[in-house]
Amino acid sequence: MITQHNIQLQPYNSFKTKAVARLFSEPANAEELSEILNRFPEEKKLILGAGYNLFFTEDFDGLVIRPAMKGIYLIWENDREVELEAGAAEDWDHLVEWTVKNGYAGLENLSLIPGSVGASPVQNIGAYGREVSECITLVNTVDVQSGERKSFTTDQCDFSYRDSIFKQNRDQVITSVRFRLEKSYTYLEKYVDLSRELNSNTNPTLSQVREAIIRIRTRKLPDPEKLPNAGSFFKNPILTSKEKESLVSLLPDLPLYTTGGNRFKTSAAYLIEKAGYKGMRRGLVGVYDQHALIIVNHGTDSGSEIAAFVKEVQQEVFRQYGVMLEPEVWIF
Ligand code: EPU
């Protein structure tokens, strides 16, 4: 197993910020991964997926591991369902495309989300009324401390909105993920924007749903290859009913979604827009002009410049509306 020294991480994060990793390794299977972890027990470690949900503000004085496990395998199937396992390094949207082509339902609403399969359970990716946790049956990992192989059932993953045990503890490297999908498909409206895009087609096929989502996302979200970004930068805040009441008195049109337990999810994009930041540019960093939840990099290679702008947006939204936005992107 090869370990490289002093590797530039700029190509490995979608914001394209510069930082050097003192040690860098791309294990192709769980055995190689265990070997590399056992060889460097004392090093600080960072696990990189496709780099769509993090950026660097300084060099990394430790070992960066970029899992390289590929492949999509059929585990079992019956008349109604199929269970697949995909390697952590598979491109997420490639997996979604493959499932839709084969007529397997479950992941279609998560079309075109950038990133790797291994990153999908970490922040429980979600879109258009669907979260990946609804389809995951097992997550296979290697423990960062012991180098041991482990498996987590859905319950053990402790999934919630953009959260999981892997995000909370950060002590596992995900090597592969199992998904259970359906062989038949009936469209259920979960998201008005999507139904609108489907143009009153109430019985769309899986491919039609995927295509509609690709159209919505392409319109609203910037291509990271052209305008570096990391998708939604902040989580949508969850408010208590008291917080909700006081915010609605300031913003009567505030979008609200019930999440159960007398909690209300609102839109971070809406708050950022109302705070005056949509399309705003500060130096080489800004908020995307088509969607206020996206921080975009207009040409800096300094993560600190992005982090400073993020702080400004947080402080200004807090000053005006009393809500502290929490990044869903990791800043290192
Ligand atoms: N809005 C604004 N201004 C904007 C954009 C949106 O006020 O510039 C308001 C509108 O009221 C709109 C509402 O925000 O109805 C919701 O916007 P949108 O449907 O785009 O969804 P979102 O809440 O901003 C979430 C996910 C996205 C996912 C979409 C669609 C989070 C943090 N983000 O965004 O996920 O694609 O829903 O389901 O939950 C990602 O995580 O990278 C991501 C793109």
Task: Give a brief rundown of this model.
This protein folds into three domains: 4-65, Uridine Diphospho-n-acetylenolpyruvylglucosamine Reductase, domain 2; 72-219, Uridine Diphospho-n-acetylenolpyruvylglucosamine Reductase, domain 3 (2-Layer Sandwich), CATH 3.30.465.10; 229-331, Uridine Diphospho-n-acetylenolpyruvylglucosamine Reductase, domain 1, CATH 3.90.78. 25% of the residues lie in helices and 27% in strands.
Helix and strand layout, with pairings?
Blueprint lengths: L3 E5 L11 E6 L4 H10 L5 E3 L6 E2 L4 E6 L6 E6 L3 E7 L4 H10 L24 E2 L2 E2 L4 E8 L5 E5 L11 H5 L2 E11 L9 H6 L8 H15 L8 E4 L5 E3 H10 L5 E3 L4 E4 L1 H7 L6 E2 L2 E3 L6 E4 L5 H19 L8 E2 L1
Parallel strand pairs: 2-5, 3-5, 4-20
Antiparallel strand pairs: 1-2, 6-7, 7-12, 8-9, 10-11, 10-12, 13-19, 14-16, 15-16, 17-18, 18-19
The chain binds uridine-diphosphate-2(N-acetylglucosaminyl) butyric acid (EPU).
The site of uridine-diphosphate-2(N-acetylglucosaminyl) butyric acid has 18 residues, from β13 and α7.
What would your notes on this structure say?
The protein has eight helices and 20 strands. It is of the alpha+beta class. It folds into three domains: 62 residues, Uridine Diphospho-n-acetylenolpyruvylglucosamine Reductase, domain 2 (2-Layer Sandwich); 148 residues, Uridine Diphospho-n-acetylenolpyruvylglucosamine Reductase, domain 3; 103 residues, Uridine Diphospho-n-acetylenolpyruvylglucosamine Reductase, domain 1 (Alpha-Beta Complex), CATH 3.90.78. Strands 6-7-12-10-11 form a five-stranded antiparallel β-sheet. β17 and β18 form a beta hairpin. It is globular and about 60 Å long. Uridine-diphosphate-2(N-acetylglucosaminyl) butyric acid (EPU) binds next to β13 and α7.
